[in-house]
Every structure is written in structure tokens, then in C-alpha cells.
Amino acid sequence: MSELTKILDQRVEDKVAMRDAYCDSLIELAEKDKRILAIEVDVANSMGTNRFASKFPSQSIACGIQEANALSMASGLSKEGFIPFFHAFGIFATRRVFDQAFLSCGYAKAPVKIIGGDAGVTASANGGTHMPLEDMALMRSIPDAIVIEPADTVTIRALLPQIAQADVVCYVRSCRKQVIRIYDDSAQFKIGKANILREGKDASIFACGIMVHEALTAAETLEKEGISVRVVDFFTVKPLDNEMVHDSAAKTGAIVTAENHSVTGALGSAVAEYLSENIPTPLERIGVRDSYGEVGDVPYLMKRFDLTADDIVKSVKKAIARKK
Amino acid sequence: MKPEFNDLRRLAADVRINTIRSLEKFGSGHIGGTMSIADILSVLYGRVLRYKADDPNWEDRDRFVMSKGHCGPAQYAVLALSGFFPKDWLNTLNRGGTRLPSHCDNNKTPGIDASTGSLGQGVSVACGFAQGAVLKGKKHITYALLGDGELQEGQVWEAVQFAVAQKLDRLVMLVDDNGKQLDGPTISGEISLVEKFSSFGCEVYTVNGHDVAEMAPLLEKIRDGAGGGKPVVVILKTTKGGGCIFSEEKELNHHMPVSAQDATRAVNEIERRLAAGLLPGGESQ
Known about the structure:
The complex is a heterodimer of chains A (324) and B (285).
Chain A: H1 18-32, E1 36-40, H2 44-47, H3 50-55, E2 60-62, H4 67-79, E3 83-89, H5 90-93, H6 98-107, E4 113-117, H7 135-140, E5 146-148, H8 153-165, E6 170-173, E7 195-198, E8 203-207, H9 211-224, E9 229-233, E10 236-238, H10 242-252, E11 255-262, H11 267-278, E12 283-288, H12 298-304, H13 309-321
Parallel strand pairs in A: 1-2, 1-3, 3-4, 4-6, 5-6, 8-9, 8-11, 11-12
Antiparallel strand pairs in A: 5-10, 7-9
Helix pairs in contact in A: 1-8, 4-6, 9-13, 10-11
Chain B: H1 6-26, E1 28-29, H2 31-36, H3 38-48, E2 63-66, H4 72-81, H5 121-136, E3 142-147, H6 154-165, E4 171-177, E5 180-181, E6 184-185, H7 193-200, E7 203-208, H8 212-224, E8 232-237, H9 245-248, E9 256-257, H10 260-276
Parallel strand pairs in B: 2-3, 3-4, 4-8, 7-8
Antiparallel strand pairs in B: 1-9, 5-6
């Protein structure tokens, strides 16, 4: 349980964009498996999958701007034995087509892979209409579905083959552009198992996506103040790694969750549900609180919605203060 | 009546009778839409579809999607009559633990290819089946049965645009044009269904959806001549509740209680009309 996953000493922006890592991995999978299909809804150039279409024209299906048909259609392809990857901006991949994801894919047991780009505040200049702050909450409510938010390119590359193999609906919430790279190339990932990135005894921070970097930064700040914090990457939001939640609660006695998402319905909620039923523990949740998105650059929006490392530092202290 | 279609008329009568009896066992159900499609189901399962009842997932079978998912009970009747599962399953309709839920479920019922019930999605799933056949180089045909009210769903027209763009010419969309929806007459505007589907680029036919002698040759022709580059649409002119006397008598007949007395009266009338050579709705042929 307490084994550390190897991360980089210096965390800097990756040279490779998340969408390119995704497309590279999809191409690698398709080279070995002709069942892999890319379902396009007129955002291949934005989502980075245009290279897939050039390489495997017959495995790329351009539907145009019609997410509902495309996703139900993908369910039919899945029932025919194919492995369709449906990708769109996060809001169009989830909120717009929730009934299609729920019924055509989930209920019908058609394990379509749904990839949403522009996680949370990274929708940035596209603003409130395009900012998915509830996508993981929606997808988490689909029975048996897997919900994943990778922190970096190493994670998405490692997980994509597992996602392709999964026999349930998967939702992967990713970013399109470059993000801070967290992991060493040797890092291992398994769907449903959280990775400990840093060990500590006073509190634990559970993060996913771009908040993993913020969590590590917060832990470094706290260390200077003599507070020792465990940092865990919960790249699988569902199924939640309950063992990790339990172990961290038992060993550190205070938990902070950090997600680039509404605090309702995703990582913070899942952890709260587990803790309250099994091992009541002081919990503070970092995330967007009952707000719509808006335009702004990412640093602005992270401040606007209290998602920064400084916010995490404050929450960790608050959680520790609540320990009995 | 052309006698060579008597087997299909008998099957259609049995689809109605078994549907009515299964709804009677439960006490109520979607009588209107199940009755209007009994004849097309008889034509499909009695003559047109290629399937193996003892191997419902046979790779080369024709696919069938009940896009108007609430009419599952009529399909269950024809599936049971065609040997997909024992007829006594029909007595379990909608009971807890049944394999025959009111809306079609591809994980519960042999012979059901798609889970439907949220209108508009089934035809898209059918597009996926048809696209899958293209990718696999298979020649089977995918049929989707839609309601005329269902055509109000925007997703249907997304699917039609997709099917036309992808040249899914082994996709056959059957529209049960019974003129009514749950709340009353079908809301549709001035432009006819033929014009709508033709303008989107489909090959469109219109038939009397209660006349097996008209439908069977057309559907066989479509099946055997498939591959013309366009998705096919067949508008079935039907009467909602047609062929079931107590639903014919009621204006709002989408979902109705079905008593034992109703059922027996309807079954007797079906047998009487069949013997007298009358089509559902009382028109003679």
C-alpha cells in the first residue's frame, strides 16, 4: 500500500500535448487491433485525432456535428464487436449526450470509450458553455462505468490499452494541450488503483488531473512548515480505490480532495461517501462550488475557483485542525 | 385475398392474439402501437428476415431494431411464434425477473438486437449495425422500426443524415405511420414523410402497413436488390390499435387497460375477420 510511484524530481510542462499522447496511443492500439475505431464529431482537428484518420481512414468514422447519433451509433458498432472511441469536448461528450451514454451504451452493455477534452478550467477561452465541471459526476452515475482523469501524458499512454480492453463504458476526462508532467516513464498504472506519489503522516491529499501538480506543490510548501502530507493520484475516480482511502484515513487522520471539477458528484463526493460510511475522518474538498464556468486563462480560473496549491495548503491545515 | 399470403395473415393474427393475451396477463400495455405493427412483424419474421431462431446471434443474420421500444410486446409475440423462446414466456411480460420487459433489452431477450425505449436512439444503433456490416464486408440487412411520433426526435434526423452520408444502403427504416401519438394526432406539419425522407436523400416507398400481400413482395424486392447507394425508408400506412376491436373503438389508445373480457372479444374478432378475409380496421381486400 505504501509503495511510492516514481515521479519526476523537476515537474515542468510536457513537450507533448495531452491530445497528441492520446492520438499516438490510439494509433498504437489500432496498429495491433483492427477493431479500434475513432468516432469523429467534427472536432478531430481540435482533439488531435486527425492523424488517426489519415493513418486509418477506414477505422475513422466522420459523423459531423451530431453527438447523439454518433454515440448511439457507436453503441451499435460496439455490439458488432468493434471498440469505438468517441471523442469530443467534455461537455459534448457527456452532458449533451447523457441519455445516449446511459442507455445506448451503459444499459445496453455496449462498452464504448468516451473521451472528453478540455477538463474543467482548461476550457479557458471557450468559457462557461464549454467548461465541463460536472462531466465526471454525470458519468460516475452510470452503473459500472469507469471514470478516469489522467494527470499527464505518461498516465494516458499507460492506461489507454487497459481502457480499450475494459468491458464497460469508460469515460476519460483529459486536457487537449500541454500539462505539467508528473511521472517518470517507469511509473505503473492500473485502473482502480490509486498511486501514492509522496508519503506523509499528518494528512493526505487525493487529487486527479491537473490538480495532482497542485497537490504536490502544496505538499512541498507544507513540508517547509513541518507538516508531512501523503499525496495520492486518484486517476480512477470510479471505481474508487476504497482501500487507499481507508488506509490514508487510518494512517493520516485527515483528508483533502482536489479536483478541477465541481465538488458535487466526483472525487470529493466519492471520498466523502466512503469515509462517512466506513471511517469518519475530517475531510476538506477543493473544487468548484456550485458555479458555472466562465472565460479566463487557466491561472486566473484556478484562483477564481479556489483551485490553487495555496488553497490546498489552507484546506490541509483546516482538516488537520479538525482532528480530535 | 391472394391465398399465397395466408400464412402471413395467420401469423399476423397470432402476433395480435399473443400480444393481447400477454398484455391481458399484465393488465395493461401499449396496445395501440403493438397492434399497428403486427402485420409488418409477420412479413419480416414470416418471410423477409434471415435468422436462426436457435442461434439468435448468428453473425450473418439480418438485424432488427425496435426503435419504438415500447412495442417490445409485439416483437416478443413474433419471436416466440418463430421459435426464439418458449411461448409461455409471454405470460411473464413485465413481471419482476422477467426476460420480457415492456421496452426491448438486448441483454435479456433472445432475438432482441438493441436495447430501446428512449425514442430516437434505436435508429442510431441500427446505423451502427449497418456501418459495422460495411466495415466487415457483410451483406446482411439492418431493419429499424420507428414510430411516426418518434420522428419528432431530432436524433432520428441526425441518424438519417448519417445514413445518407455513409451510403448505408443495407439499412431499411420502417415507419409505422399510424397517425397518432400518446397525446393525440401525430404532430407533423405540412410536409409529408415521403418528402421529408426523400429530401434527405433516402429511397422512399409507401405501403398499406396492414396488407401483407403488398408489403411482402416490396420488402423482398428491397432485400434482394439492396445496394443502390441510398438508405431505404418504407412508410407503413397503419391504424393505431388496428386489428384489435377494443383499441379501434378508443380514440386515445396508446396505452390501455386490457381486461380478460376485452381480450377474448378482441381475439374472437381477429379470428372472425381472418376467416372472412377482412384486413385490420375492417376494410376488406
